[in-house]
Amino acid sequence: MPTTGQGPLSEQHCVACKPGSPHLSREEVDHLLVELDGWAVEDAGDHLRLAKVFKFKGFMPGVELLNRIAPIAEAEQHHPDLLVAYGSVTVWLWTHAAGGITENDFILAAKIDRLQGD
Amino acid sequence: MPTTGQGPLSEQHCVACKPGSPHLSREEVDHLLVELDGWAVEDAGDHLRLAKVFKFKGFMPGVELLNRIAPIAEAEQHHPDLLVAYGSVTVWLWTHAAGGITENDFILAAKIDRLQGD
């Protein structure tokens, strides 16, 4: 999968995928997963996806997290699915054009992980 | 179900439900549904819920809609589940304490409908 360079995932940038671009194998996904914090691999039927659940007290902290993730996703032009509920936000990442998980998903996941440390 | 008064749903306010409060029957739900715009009733397994999908171009308009819904939900202390994805926001409403749909859900749905006309 194309990435813009080496170094920490959180400092790389997503590269546009064309339809039909390959996704990572399950082995590649498991290998990269150790670089992330608290993400799991889910089988969503016809594709794998990365998933992370953030827990909060109340509703607005989840809204605030979404508002911190959104500009990063927009800047990378790579967008997660975000489920905001009372007490939690679930983030799902996969690459539609590739039909699975790509390095772009790991890059965005790493940037989201980095938010927590701000 | 308790409501604070008569008049348009969008001008009523949610009333706290206690655990075990009754939910509306399917017939009551169907009767009230005509007062809403574009909502459907979904069977989520062990409960019914109201659902509405908003379609957009891109990602940020959905984030903006969520940010308009959130303070209303917070003010009413009645919170939907919101799935933000590229091109859409899905809103689900049900009342956990009642195990189904209550008038509170209709009140919040009506307030969300009213947002679109702003």
Provide a short characterization of the protein structure.
2 copies of one chain form a homodimer. With 118 residues, chain A is an alpha+beta fold.
Which secondary structure elements does this structure contain, and how are they paired or packed?
Two copies of one chain form a homodimer.
Chain A: H1 26-33, E1 40-43, E2 48-55, H2 60-76, E3 81-85, E4 88-93, H3 103-116
Antiparallel strand pairs in A: 1-2, 2-4, 3-4
Helix pairs in contact in A: 2-3
What are the key terms here?
3 helices, globular, alpha+beta, 118 residues, Gyrase A, domain 2, homodimer
3D architecture notes:
Two copies of one chain form a homodimer. With 118 residues, the first copy, chain A, is an alpha+beta fold. Chain A has one domain: 2-Layer Sandwich (Gyrase A, domain 2). Chain A is built from three helices and four strands, in the order αββαββα. In chain A, strands 1-2-4-3 form a four-stranded antiparallel sheet, covered by helices on one side. In chain A, strand 3 and strand 4 form a beta hairpin. Chain A starts with 25 loop residues before the first helix and ends with a helix. At the A-B interface, helix 2 and strand 3 of A face helix 2 and strand 3 of B. Strand 3 of chain A pairs antiparallel with strand 3 of chain B, so a sheet runs across the interface.
Number of helices of chain A: 3
Order of helices and strands of chain A: HEEHEEH
Overall number of domains of chain A: 1
Distance between the termini of chain A: 29 Å
Q: Give the CATH H-level superfamily of chain A.
A: Transcriptional coactivator/pterin dehydratase
Mean pLDDT of chain A: 92
* Helix coverage percent of chain A: 25-40%
Helices and strands of chain A: which structural class?
alpha+beta
* CATH architectural grouping of chain A: 2-Layer Sandwich
Give the oligomeric state of the chains in this entry, treating copies of one chain as homo and distinct chains as hetero: homodimer
Unreliable stretches covering 5 or more consecutive residues of chain A: none
Strand order of the largest sheet of chain A: 1-2-4-3
Biggest interface and residues each: A-B, 15 and 15 residues
Strand content of chain A: 15-25%
Number of strands of chain A: 4
CATH level-1 class of chain A: Alpha Beta
Largest sheet of chain A: 4 strands, antiparallel
